[in-house]
Write a structure and sequence with these properties.
By secondary structure, the protein is mostly beta strands. The protein has 2 domains: about 120 residues, Immunoglobulin-like; about 150 residues, Jelly Rolls. It is built from 4 helices and 20 strands. A hairpin with a 5-residue loop joins strand 6 and strand 7. The chain starts with 6 loop residues before the first strand and ends in a 10-residue tail after the last strand.
Length: about 290
């Protein structure tokens, strides 16, 4: 266990930039949307749906600069982790109907598609069948029929899965535009939490924040000020602590893709630790990256 400060005050400060007339963007692979049918829930009439929640949200949609790829992946497969015993061989077929909405909010469909699995324990077998589609912001997969040959469907369905997955790659506007300007506070990290329970064991303060979908990494910055300097008002402006003075020529900064960080408390005496977090993203031509 490390030796830590006798007395330490800890403060989180918000970091909000001023207004500017450029557009900051961030390229992101969003977490995939997925819906799954397993076992005896795979039956005629069942429907599984996924949709791009950003595209269909009137508040979030303006943050989309461009969508680079919308990939729809429909998978019919054997659950290889199932502990059920399979017959020596079987063939399973599932008929599905795809109903989807495109970028123009128009509905279309694939009337019927059959996916097949061909299993044989004594030779190489086909454990899954996949159907790919692009451009569907909402996808509904309806089961029309599931059948089996060489075995009863009831003896194999418990080891089968049908998955409807939506994968998105897009660029986000980090600061939504208002006229010719942008609000640089729109995507600021507004709250940073601290966990002092890590100090006795590790000699480090754990801080964390809510992830922001428009950024790819975060700058974590902290500065330690001893008590005498604070008492003398050295870091005050008009009687109030100034973040600009606190972090000027006095701070340590790291960049991380995580949503938390452990700040080492390598300080002596009595004082205060100030920290702040801001989002970062890849450079877009002509723009700064934070």
């Amino acid at each position: 266990m490390r030796k830590v400060l006798k007395k330490l005050a800890v403060y989180g400060l918000s970091l909000v930039a001023g207004m500017a007339s450029v557009v900051f963007v961030s390229a992101q692979n969003d977490p995939p949307y997925s819906s799954l049918l397993q076992g005896d829930s795979i039956k005629a009439g069942k429907v599984i749906t996924v949709q791009d929640t950003v595209f269909f949200n009137p508040i979030l949609k303006p943050t989309i600069l461009r969508t680079n790829a919308i990939n729809n992946i429909i998978s019919f497969r054997i659950n290889e982790y199932s502990n059920r015993v399979l017959p020596d061989s079987f063939k399973a077929d599932i008929k599905i109907r795809l109903i989807y909405i495109n970028k123009d909010n128009l509905q279309d469909s694939v009337t019927e598609k059959t996916l097949s699995i061909d299993y044989n324990k004594n030779k190489t077998y086909k454990s899954k069948d996949i159907y790919y589609l692009q451009g569907a912001y909402q996808m509904k997969v309806k089961v029309l029929q599931i059948t089996a040959t060489y075995a009863s469907i009831n003896t194999i369905v418990h080891s089968l899965e049908l998955e409807n997955k939506l994968q998105i790659e897009r660029d986000y506007v980090m600061n939504p535009i208002s006229g010719s300007l942008m609000s640089c506070s729109a995507n600021a990290i507004r709250q940073v939490s601290k966990d002092v329970s890590t100090i006795p064991e590790y000699g480090e303060l754990k801080i964390s924040w809510l992830p922001n979908r428009t950024v790819e990494s975060y700058d974590v910055e902290w500065a330690y000020i001893d008590k005498s300097a604070l008492d003398n008002g050295r870091y005050n402006v008009s009687g109030q602590l100034s973040p600009q003075l606190i972090f000027k020529n006095n701070a340590t900064r790291i960049t991380t893709t995580a949503d938390n960080y452990m700040i080492p408390l390598l300080y002596d005496g009595e004082g205060s630790l100030f920290f702040r977090v801001r989002g970062r993203h890849k450079i877009y031509p002509g723009c700064r990256d934070n």
